[in-house]
Design a protein that fits this description.
The protein is built from 10 helices and 7 strands. With 304 residues, it is an alpha/beta fold. Helix 4 (120-145) links the parallel strand 4 (97-100) and strand 5 (152-156). The longest helix is centred in the middle third of the chain and has 26 residues, at 120-145.
Length: 304
Amino acid sequence: MSGPLEGKVALVAGATRGAGRGIAVELGAAGATVYVTGRTTRARRSEYDRPETIEDTADLVTEAGGRGIAVPTDHLDPVRVRDLVDRVAREQDRLDVLVNDIWGAERLFEWDTPVWEHDLDNGLRLLRLAVETHAVTSHHALPLLLRRPGGLVVEMTDGTAEYNRDTYRVNLFYDLAKTSVLRMAFALAHEIGPREATAVALTPGWMRSELMLDQFGVGEDNWRDALGRVPHFAISETPRFVGRAVAALAADPGVARFNGQSLSSGGLAREYGFTDLDGSRPDAWRYLVEVQDAGKPADTTGYR
């Protein structure tokens, strides 16, 4: 069966695991050819030293109905990124969707640690991984995306513009990284909007990534077992939920109405009507403000 993205080509930069993998799979389920990049392959692991690989992601894309193509890429290396985009251009002669999901810094930041106490090398590398990689990738990929009207750029971050404006996020380095990506989408919107393309920032909610599930000692099949220790985890969502948000944006002929905006998986679920894998629509960012941050007991009634 053909999907709404049949014939479209996407590049998901940073698709080894987590949101990137969920997005790649859902783009594949909609029929797209999806190039997936990252640093961990079946032959070599990054410093994350985790088992997920870009080849696994590519296989999942193909199994979902698309065509997954894994390309090992360090997005801090401009030459490697240029070669990646040259390959997409050579093989497909088009790029319709660019998802900048490069991150890879979970093990670099220290919670609630002021800048003068935080490890400086780790903090600066976090900024390079979270911001510089996105700029390098956009620099090389956007000329290909702009060859045809209707292209979409999705800058993945953590937190909506409204939430991050009013909330201190973890520490200076993390706060700066996630806010910078929001601003990057805003700036890109001004640069590519007049050229018939759209840029948005997008955040998942509290996502049940592989790393998060491991941290809580649960799997996707029994994630609710963690609620006794972390009650607000009840609002969490799978990586496929934000993947469905990207697929819906990419298939929307009127997506330009969102140009420059900060969006969330929960908000787009209301807009487009998609659900998470369990049939629910978790609205994490509204829940965080109205329930968790307000100090109320965990209760997802009305929020999923």
